[in-house]
């Protein structure tokens, strides 16, 4: 796994990130993920940490690529993929969140009849990605301005994809921006799609299904397909950090 180095004024070590992540009620969060495909982790970051991460956006030295959504039909807005080494704060949270989400992911695979077990630590999973040729880091920083939006999509970057990811709202709704709600849609077999609008405050994280999740039916579990996006920003500027656990080709 590539090393991490400090990219923020007050970096959070892995042990500190693990402590704050472990303080959440993970059985309850797992229940939310099972029931709705998403779960909110309130106040994962402080306002100061949010501003510090958002302030990295103009500095190209932290990033490997810069994407303008309109050029690719993804919506409107832009984002930058971080390069290795990741900022300590995001790298520590990526490491700390993974084991809790891996337990949910393994239970989902079992229920959906999908072969494959995710290892208990993130370094081991990244080693699998890199062995498969997926070596480019996927954590990203997104920026939206008035009129910008993100089309419904799935963040799949190769044959190996971890089924849950996280997004952290860095801006303050109602003060820094208006609009820009996080949206999750679920396509259910032989039924109309279900929409989940997730209200977030500054520093809140949402963990959500990347692609499929199991739903209990009368004859056992079946798969539903999920996509996520962001509604139109009405005013101001909205920053979000995305934590994707698999790397890309």
Give a description of the structure.
- The protein is an alpha+beta fold and 249 residues long.
- Helices cover 27% and strands 32% of the residues.
- The chain is built from 6 helices and 15 strands.
- The protein has helices at 14-22, 26-36, 47-54, 69-72, 88-112, 122-131, and strands at residues 38-41, 63-68, 75-76, 78-82, 140-144, 149-153, 164-169, 177-179, 182-187, 194-198, 205-209, 212-217, 220-230, 233-236, 238-243.
- The strands form 3 sheets. Strands 1-11-7-15-5-4-2 form a 7-stranded antiparallel sheet. Strands 3, 6, 9, 10, 12 and 13 form a 6-stranded antiparallel sheet that branches. A two-stranded antiparallel ribbon has the order 8-14.
- Helix 1 (14-22) packs across helix 5.
- The longest helix is centred in the middle third of the chain and has 25 residues, at 88-112.
- It is globular, with a radius of gyration of 17 Å.
- The two termini are 15 Å apart.
- Mean pLDDT is 92; it is low at 1-12.
Keywords summarizing the entry:
single chain, alpha+beta, 6 helices, Prolyl 4-hydroxylase, Jelly Rolls, 27% helix, 249 residues, oxidoreductase activity, 15 strands, seven-stranded antiparallel sheet, six-stranded antiparallel sheet, globular
Give a short summary of the structure:
This protein has 249 residues and is α+β, with helices and mostly antiparallel strands. The chain contains 6 helices and 15 strands.
Mean pLDDT: 92
Identify the CATH class. Mainly Beta
Task: Point out poorly predicted stretches.
Answer: 1-12
Give the DSSP E fraction (strand runs of 2 or more residues): 25-35%
Kindly state the number of beta strands. 15
- Summarize the main sheet: 7 strands, antiparallel
Our count of helices gives 6
Order of helices and strands: HHEHEHEEHHEEEEEEEEEEE
Helical fraction: 25-40%
């Amino acid at each position: 796994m590539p090393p991490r180095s400090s990219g923020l004024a007050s970096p959070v070590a892995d042990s500190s990130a693990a402590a704050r992540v472990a303080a959440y009620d993970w059985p309850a969060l797992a229940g939310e993920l099972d029931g709705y495909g998403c779960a909110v982790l309130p106040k994962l970051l402080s306002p100061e940490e949010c501003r510090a991460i958002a302030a990295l956006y103009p500095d190209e030295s932290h990033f490997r690529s810069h994407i303008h959504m309109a050029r690719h039909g993804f919506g409107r807005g832009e984002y930058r993929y971080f390069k290795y080494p990741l900022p300590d704060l995001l790298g520590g949270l990526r490491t700390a969140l993974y084991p809790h989400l891996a337990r949910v992911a393994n239970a989902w695979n079992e229920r959906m009849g999908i072969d494959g077990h995710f290892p208990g630590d993130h370094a081991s999973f990244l080693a699998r990605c890199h062995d498969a040729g997926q070596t480019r880091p996927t954590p990203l920083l997104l920026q939206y301005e008035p009129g910008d939006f993100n089309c419904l999509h799935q963040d799949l970057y190769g044959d190996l994809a971890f089924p849950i990811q996280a997004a952290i709202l860095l801006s303050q709704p109602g003060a820094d921006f208006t609009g820009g709600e996080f949206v999750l849609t679920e396509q259910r077999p032989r039924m109309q799609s279900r929409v989940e609008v997730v209200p977030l405050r500054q520093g809140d994280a949402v963990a959500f299904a990347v692609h499929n999740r199991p739903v209990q039916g009368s004859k056992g579990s079946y798969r539903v397909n999920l996509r996520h996006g962001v509604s139109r920003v009405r005013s101001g500027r909205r920053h979000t950090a995305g934590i994707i656990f698999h790397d890309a080709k």
